[in-house]
Design a protein that fits this description.
Pathway: Purine metabolism; guanine degradation; xanthine from guanine: step 1/1. GO terms for molecular function: guanine deaminase activity; zinc ion binding. The structure is a single chain. The chain is of the alpha/beta class and 431 residues long. It has two domains: 124 residues, Urease, subunit C, domain 1 (Roll), CATH 2.30.40; 293 residues, Alpha-Beta Barrel (TIM Barrel), CATH 3.20.20. It is built from 15 helices and 16 strands. The protein is globular and about 65 Å long. The model has no long low-confidence stretch (mean pLDDT 98). It binds guanine and zinc ion (ZN). The site of guanine has 11 residues, from helix 2.
């Protein structure tokens, strides 16, 4: 049995804060501790209280840093680690010029394995302990993605992309092979260790109706799996979706028709939605995923968080590597904050840190396991240092409240502000 007591300023959310004064939405212990036994949290609270029931534990002292649940990245592309920062005009230009070229390299297992190492190193250095990732069309990419996550004991969700038209030949499966390979991957990986499968039709532009039907059949056969795709990211993309599926009422209606929507459906971007599409998302419980660094980088548009929340739709938030420009969920909040500013909406730092931890875990239906520091959760944690750089220190000297500190972290912070990351209680960064 291994017992560890982590000391630091401990912060964990219970629900989405309503705003600046909603301190009942979280637990914060200035002199706090997290007691971890065999990778799970046994207790979290004031250090003096927690210590009373701990005997002979190894003590790790993170004071004066903050200890939070590990970050959750709800949408990113494993085969795009070498696409990130590619110059392009807009989504479709960028996909054709860079992404559809680079993803072809993932046919080779050796390449997938080499990239998987860099991918997870990058996530963990940035404090991200769970990701929901797309592979390439090749089963090898999903194999490597799952195998490396399993080796590291990470809570990962992902799948091989299904795409059978309008892309280079070398990136196409068929309705049948996409179904068969996805099914084999589900049987091999879903529920193994901390892994879950996401059925992954890339988007309506690269799937024939037969393939979307096959994806829908997989969702019906395995309702315990997630489903991830892209929707309404870019205006030209939307026009093209309407041309390809003229009988569908709108873009969301394409996925609706093939039975892809439900509480476990994750819809990347979801920017330019029409009223009927919002009704369908609200009705099915599908989760839009806000990808701010990507939306700004590709010039896609401004996500309407308040508009969706007003309809009871709690979106998730993500990097979208490599359309997104940073592995850091802190930098994702920074850009997200600015996107919402342009919409006349405000993201309070309490809401922001709830979003990348508990909020995203809730969107996955996984709050019992990840996203908080409650007893019983797996000890996936991040340790944050608001004085990680001289410039941050200069600013931090004028800070008085937790909200100010969190805001500094999300605006100026990145991997340098991550002092340590824990997966099931095991340290991931060399310090
Ligand atoms: N739509 C379809 N595929 C992709 C992708 O790889 N990245 C982004 N940002 N949008 C997409
Ligand atoms: Zn994407």
């Amino acid at each position: 049995m291994s017992e560890t007591l982590f000391l630091g300023r401990v912060l964990s959310f219970h629900r989405r804060p309503e705003g600046a004064h909603d301190e009942a939405a979280f637990t914060y212990h200035e002199a706090g501790a997290v007691h971890v036994r065999d990778g799970r949290i046994v207790a979290m609270g004031d250090a003096d209280d927690v210590r009373k029931s701990v005997y002979g534990a190894h003590v790790v002292d993170h004071r004066p840093h903050l200890i939070l649940p590990g970050f959750i990245d709800m949408h990113l592309h494993f085969p795009q680690v070498q696409v990130l920062a590619s110059w392009g005009k807009d989504l479709l230009d960028w996909l054709n010029k860079y992404t559809f070229v680079e993803e072809q390299r993932f046919a080779e297992m050796a390449h997938c394995e080499a990239m998987a190492t860099g991918f997870y190193d990058g996530l963990l250095r940035n404090g991200t302990t769970t990701g929901v990732a797309y592979g390439s069309v090749h089963a090898t990419s999903a194999e490597a993605m799952f195998a490396e996550a399993e080796r590291r004991g990470m809570r990962m969700i992902g799948g091989k992309v299904m795409m059978d038209c309008h892309a280079p030949e070398a990136l196409l499966d068929t309705a049948q092979t996409g179904y068969d390979e996805s099914l084999a991957l589900i049987e091999r990986w879903h529920g193994k260790g901390r892994l879950s499968y996401a059925i992954t039709p890339r988007f309506a532009l690269t799937s024939t109706p037969e393939q979307l039907e096959a994806a829908g059949a997989l969702c019906a056969l395995h309702p315990e799996c997630y489903m991830q795709t892209h929707v309404s990211e870019n205006l030209t993309e939307i026009e093209r979706a309407r041309e390809l599926y003229p009988d569908a009422p709108d873009y969301v209606g394409i996925y609706e028709r093939y039975g892809l929507l439900g509480a476990r459906a994750l819809l990347g971007h979801a920017i330019h939605l029409e009223p009927r599409e919002i009704d369908v998302i609200a009705g099915t419980g599908a989760k839009p995923v806000f990808c701010p660094t990507s939306n700004l980088f590709l010039g896609s548009g401004l996500y309407d968080d308040a508009g969706l929340r007003a309809r009871g739709i709690q979106g998730a938030i993500a990097t979208d590597i490599g359309g997104g420009t940073s592995y850091s969920m802190l930098q994702t909040l920074n850009e997200g904050y600015k996107v919402l500013q342009l919409r006349g909406q405000q993201m309070h730092p309490y809401q922001a840190f709830d979003w990348i931890t508990r909020g995203n875990a809730e969107a996955l239906g996984l709050v019992q396991e990840i996203g908080t520091l409650k007893a019983g959760s797996v000890a996936d944690m991040v340790v944050l240092d608001a004085r990680a750089t001289p410039e941050m220190t200069l600013r931090a000297d004028r800070i008085e409240t937790l909200a100010e500190e969190l805001f500094l972290l999300m605006i100026m912070g990145d991997d340098r502000a991550v002092a340590q990351t824990y997966v099931a209680g095991a340290a991931q960064k060399d310090v």
